Amino acid sequence: MSNSNGWGLTARLISKHFGALGDRFAEAIASFDPETATEADRDRLADTLRNAAQKLASARSAFNKEREDVVKLRELIATDEKATETLAERLAAGQISEATINLFCDELEANKARLPQELREEADAQEYMSELQKIVDALSQQLADFDAAAKKAMQALATAKAQRELQEVRAERQSELASLSGMRGNTSALNALTRRAQQISNEAEGMKIVSDIGQRPYDQAAEIDAIRKSVNQPASESALDRLKRLSSKAAAA
Predict the structure, then answer these.
(1) Can you tell me the distance from the alpha carbon of 157 to that of 42, in angstroms, rounded to the nearest whole number?
(2) Residue ranges of region Disordered (predicted)?
(3) CA separation for the pair 215, 73 (Å, rounded)
(4) Residue 27's closest CA among 45, 50, 46?
(5) What is the distance between the alpha carbons of residues 213 and 235, in angstroms, rounded to a whole number?
(6) Are 27 and 5 a contacting pair, CB within 8 Å?
(7) How far is CA 60 from CA 17, 57, 84, 158, 241, in A?
(8) How much is the pTM?
(9) How far apart are CA 100 and CA 98, in angstroms?
(10) What is the pLDDT of residues 182-233, one digit of tens each?
(11) Mapped to the 3 state alphabet, what secondary structure does 1-41 carry?
């Protein structure tokens, strides 16, 4: 396959977290060809998939933690903002000291200043998790393609063996019939029949080869259609879009 350039961004993103790991993932995806791969190639790809799946699980956990941190910080800021009016009344009534109020304000301002950084960390974690998901999906599809190609090859091999065995049995029976007849004409006729049977078998095999070649574009078209459908799935709201939406609501409020 020639999709190594398409994985350039993924490789750079993963490399930022795990060094050369991103390059290895991208290379594994780009270089694997189910049509010509061996069982050893499949084993290596399966090992890469397991590695990627483990990283994805870790990335999901990290993203969930970052998202939880953002939610908690937003809730704390909102709660403290609601408390400001009550604290102002208590300060005016002499029920609370200015030192306590200043400490409260310092914490509120620090939390507001920290929120953008928490949002960036959440966005980075989500982007990293999304890219790992793409890698896992691609590796899974590669393995599925290999298994499908291997199954097809095994079926073709079994069919070829069955055809050969059939021809061997036919030839054996014809030879037995020829040995029972002392007539040269009959022997010649049986030999001709054997040659005709072999010719028909060769023609059938040739037609099968042509049919397999003709089927390949349809199989490839189906794979491309599947890729397009997967790409056209509705995208979920990104962390950046959520931030813009929530910021606009905060401004309106």
Answers:
(1) 20
(2) 229-253
(3) 58
(4) 45
(5) 37
(6) no
(7) 14, 5, 36, 45, 19
(8) 0.52
(9) 5
(10) 544 455 666 777 788 888 888 888 787 877 787 877 777 777 777 777 666 5
(11) CCCCHHHHHHHHHHHHHHCCHHHHHHHHHHHCCCCCCCHHH
